[in-house]
Structures are given as structure tokens and as C-alpha cells.
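Data availability excerpt. The first of two example chains:
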Amino acid sequence: MSTPADYANELCAAHAFSMQAPVFDKLYAGNTIVQYKRQRVRAHLEQLLSPGSHILELNAGTGDDAIYLAQQGHYVHATDISAGMQEQLVQKVKQYDVHAFVSNELCSYTALSTLKNRGPYDCIFSNFAGLNCTGDLDSVLSSFYKLLRPGGIVVLVMLPKFCLWEALLVFKGKFKTATRRFFSAGGRSAKIDGAAFTCWYYSPRYIKRQVKQQYNLLALEGLCTFVPPSYIEHFAERYPRLFAFLCKLENRYKKSWPWKNIGDYYIISFLRK
């Protein structure tokens, strides 16, 4: 069960992201590696979805994925604890005229028992490490089961406990970034525009262990293992041939050990028994 401290941290993270909500889309639209990450996640997700799937999206942000999935004919209930993000999402729903496919609800993923639209859903989806903002991930994962139909799927994009690219930054003297995932069992402080919150890192092994009684693993793949993280700015533009080569390497080895475990993120999916 989520603790008051855990919920307070999620509110801090929500406040940080809310302040940046109006500029997120502009920043991401111009980042080639962010677009690469989105394409990878969507490809993983679409391989598992049936036509016209009903999806519960957690930490939906400004709605980029919800709009995309709606345009593919899926029905998305987009949730977030950030009021600023939800406002941006509602504007996009109007802009793209996908009212019939996208609904939204202000709700914490640590309080899914209070969710008004309870499905059942064909898929629960969370992108770009939203669930790394809780230190109570086991309780969050356990809350999914009653919201999914039998045979439903869960697709999560998470930050692991070790990232090869980050570790290599020690050779550039960026010790704080290079070591921030080390010894992080109690969480590590993070900031966005001066607003502080705590981030936890979870290994794929941890998640597999938590869900093994009620789910079967479908797939696990590394994301930004060979391709650098998006915060290494303008890499794709400066080194287009190298970027293309690294994309090919990642596509080849994304499901292989150890590469599937040591990217900036990993994508994990599992099936409700």
C-alpha cells in the first residue's frame, strides 16, 4: 500500500512536470533520439495489441502516446496525477478530434483503487519511467490485476539500476551522473526546473519476481543501450552515420543478454494469466 511519503513524492514529481508541460512537446519534437525511443516503444506495444484495444495509460503526460494510439484505432483512458499534463492532453484531444477514442482522469498510479473508469482493460501501459517515481512499485504492480481482463497485457518502460552509457560518463568527469544509479535502493534525488523529487531504479529481475505468480513474461528489450540517451544532445545530428550504425546494433541485440538489461531504459511486457 502506498505510504503518505510515497504519495507526497509523486506530487512533487507531478509539480515539477506540470511546470514544464507547455514546453515538453517542443523540446521532444526536436530531439531525434526521443523520437527514436517513442518509435521503439510503440513498435513493441503494437506487436502485442489487438485491433480496437482498450488501454489504460498511466502517467500519460501531455498525451503524445494517447493521441498516437487513438489514431491507430485504439481506445485510451489516459491518467496522470499532474493537472498541467492533463490540461495539455485535453487540448490535444480537441486538436486531433479523437474524443471518441481518448478519455482522461486525474489519478495517481499509486491509488488505482480509486480509479473511476475501471475497465477491464486489454492493456495497461506506462512510458518513459513514470513508475520510477514510486518507491512502492510492488503495490502498484499488484493493483493491475483487477483492472485487466484475462489475457490482458502490461507494457512498462523503466529505468534500470545500471546504464552503460551513464557509467561511461565517468571518463568525461561527470561523476554525479555516472554514479547516480549506484547504491540507489533508497532512491536518488532528481530535479526538474528546480523542483526536487526522488527517483528509484528497478531491475528487470525485480519486476519479473513481483509479477511471476499472476503473469507470464512476454518480452524484455533494452532501450538506448547502444544508442545514447536523449540527454546527450545533438548526437544524432553530429554523427548521423554512427547514429544509424548504433540503431542497427541495438535492433540486433536489444533482446540479448547483457544488452537488454543495461540500457538507459528497458521495455518489459507481461501477460495476465
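And the second chain:
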Amino acid sequence: MTITVLLADDQAMVRTGFRLILDSEADITVVGEADDGERAVELTHRLRPDVVLMDIQMPRMDGLEATRRLTQEPGASRIVILTTFERDDYVFQALRAGASGFLLKNAPPEELVHAVHTIAAGNALLAPSVTRRVIADYAKRAPRPENTAVLDRLTGRESEVLRLVATGMSNAEIAAALFLGEGTVKTHVSHLLTKLDLRDRVQAVVFAYQNGLNK
């Protein structure tokens, strides 16, 4: 199955570099390029790519606003925020905007390819330099849920899995910790995301911190 990607960056050389890296992969195809946020929104609506690589600082509309608009729609393309700036406030804003991933532009090519595969598979991605401390700080700043009764929807096992997701564990690590199959853990994660109306693991981690499940 081919993963389709849209590149949104106001620098032509950056887009060219990303295209060369991604088009060299047998299962990834770059289907379009945008040099500003408005064009990114327009092309995403028209091309429906699996993944959008979105720069933050662009003319006419920045990447964060473009992300907000796109992620509010049903069946939206998944978005990776790309930036040259390793700043916590960009991480916070990207999470609020609905991004499923955050990656620095100076990451090596293999990390860019990995990011596309990870996001297209329905998982979430944070740059290695973005630590649990950043997520914890974001959760403190973000509005707390008005109704935590939603937690009652989870089974005991799903709550346990959510706690481990909040520690940053992968499905494989959670499987080893709970003596479960990795496929079983993946199913639990999928169910808890659906029950809590969360888009991906990033939102699950934030939710867990907001509700004290990381302790």
C-alpha cells in the first residue's frame, strides 16, 4: 500500500529535499506541494493525502492554523509539524492544533521516513528531544476535562494500558510489561482511544496527565 504525502513549506529547497528523500521510498509518494498555509489547506482538501508534512512559519496562513482547520474535519489527513525551532511553545501549539506528530527539520532522513510510516499507521510521533516533561507541562497548561466520568468507560485492562502509554512505552514494551501479545495491546489502545474520543497516542498521553493517570 502506497502512503501519499503532501509537503507544505515556504522554502522550495526544503520541499525538494523532502521530496527526494520520500520519493526514494518504494511505498511513499509525494502527491503535492504547497508554499503557504492556505494552499496547504486547499491541496489537502483536493488530494486527500494520508500525511501532511506541515511547516509552522509560512505566509498567508501559518502551519498551526492550517492544522487546526484540517484536523477539525472527519477523516482528516494526519499531520506532522516540521520546524527548525526546538521550542516547547511550538510543541504545545502543535498539540492544541491537532497534530499527530512533531519533528525537527534537522532530523536525519531516516527519521523523516520513519515519521511518515509511523503517522500513516495511525500512531503518533514526537521528536526524541521532546521529552515527557514537555508533555507533562503541556497537560498542566491545557484545559482540564469537565467530565472525567468518561474514564468509567474503560475496562481495568484498558486503564492499565493507558497508564503505560502515558509513560511513553511502545506497544511492544507494554506487551512485555503486561505479558500480553503485541496485537492484544494494539487492540486495547484502539478501544481506549475510541471510548475516550481521542485521536491518537499524543492525545492519550495528554489525557492521562490531565487526569492523573501517569502516577
